[in-house]
Amino acid sequence: MSFNIKDIRADFPILSQKINGKPLVYFDNGATSQKPQVVIDAISKYYQEINANIHRGVHTLSQLATDAYEASRNKIKNHINAKFAHEVIFTSGTTHGINLVANGFASLLKPGDEVLVSALEHHSNIVPWQMLCERTGATLKVIPMNENGELILSEFDKLLSEKTKIVTVNHISNALGTINPIKYMIDKAHQVGAAILIDGAQAVSHLKPNVQELDCDFYAFSGHKMFAPTGTGILYGKEAWLNKLPPYQGGGEMIKEVTFEKTTYADLPHKFEAGTPNIADGIVLGTAVDYINSIGIENIQEQEKELLEYGTQRLLEIEGLRIFGTAAAKTSVISFNIEGIHPYDIGTIIDKLGIAVRTGHHCAQPIMNFYNIPGTIRASFAFYNTKEEIDVMVEAVKKAKLMLS
Ligand code: 7TS
């Protein structure tokens, strides 16, 4: 398909809104993406036509809803190239997926074991592992980063040992945009017999992870960052690992048989899907996957690369502006500060001009501590953004700088 930005923007009704009397410039895609009309329509269609609980009714409506839910699982399986559909677990988001795995590892770790996290993580991929270490007596070790916002792989190599039981790292950093060398890290982790979880929250809107090629043990992501509704997510896990981990939550639908003496658990994926799931939005996650594929991931990447280059060059025209995150491999995220001005003040002024960016620590306080800053202004672009919008932001930042200095 050819990439026509006008048509693409027309797919996202929110983009034609005015905010504070100005055309919306939405550069907070790292926090959540906007939703195309096909996704919005698919939610209503579900409730209008096939709403019923799944995996339990013999009645036709329940069958239709179950079939649509399982068809969505299958689309996601194909999208990430999982070997089996039962390796695709529906969750409420990345945070849920990571907690599921960290909780499961509590039964596998003992004092002296080590968990390796990277310095570039979102709090969602730090705190569950700290909680796990507190519970089990295992030790949390941190893979350090350099000034550019890249992980120092020689240090990673040194930290790995037979004590390492699991390594956890994001595919793309939300605060800096760094694309981490996860294939290298996966292979190295496996060489010492450790499992590895990839936090793909920021990756799934920019690239198409191939979990079999990567050979990762777990890959967690959120639907809302890939043009699907909030409250959806996926935990991919290799069959053998998912069979090894205990269930995360107990309840309906995750059992084979319950007596007061003993309960046996359902097979994958149901073992990890207790209770009534977010059926409508889970189905619509499949619609979002279809939408991404209709645009084409190569087209998305090409547009975002241009935006990153143009945005970087234009922002650097501003005197006193520093970009945090200058890794060689980077996605369309620009985190920056202006000397002597608090990021929050810039964010507030440019919001009045219709521009949505995130300011603050981006739930990645250790990264801010590394640079010794309170936070940054983060512009995160999606394929529906334009160079003209970047021009609007640059002018707004210049204006804010004048007002604040
Ligand atoms: N991991 C990474 C790398 C993230 O960027 C986020 C959310 C999460 C995990 C958690 O995802 P959730 O859907 O479970 O909340 N990141 C951001 C952000 O950068 N701004 O707002 C949320």
From TrEMBL:
Xref: Pfam families: Aminotran_5
Record key words, sorted: Pyridoxal phosphate, Transferase
All residue ranges annotated as the Aminotransferase class V domain in the record: 25-392
Enzyme class: transferase
UniProt keyword Hydrolase, yes or no: no
Record-stated family: Belongs to the class-V pyridoxal-phosphate-dependent aminotransferase family. Csd subfamily.
Protein name: Cysteine desulfurase
The organism of origin for this protein: Flavobacterium psychrotolerans
